[in-house]
Specification:
The chain is mainly alpha-helical. It is built from four helices and no strands. About 70% of the residues lie in helices and about 0% in strands. Keywords: Membrane, Transmembrane, Transmembrane helix.
Amino acid sequence: MIMRYSWPALVWLLIVLVLTLIPGPAIPDVGFSFRIDKIVHFFLFGIQMVLTAYALEKHTLLRGAPARPILVSVIFSIAAGVGIEFLQRFVPGRSFSVFDMVANTIGVGIGYYVFRYLKKRNRL
């Protein structure tokens, strides 16, 4: 029953892992003169936060744990963003970036507010 609510967050995390750990030379050049990768980071980790918070919120309602699902979701999503940046150090053509970690964290923050807004409007 719990997997019914958890699978979207787990699948999204897998997609994020695959997208962020593709070797640098395999990433196609989109031809933009500015870097949109920070926007992509906001998007990826904002969605991760919303999906994780939704899953843990449902888990809390069904089982009574974890005690603070939104806080756990924030910590998990930020940790995932930091962990992925460290993993990128070992991927050819990729590198560790503090600015990407900041973008990931801002995305989690935006996801937090989106989740709260949707929950307040009874959309989740």
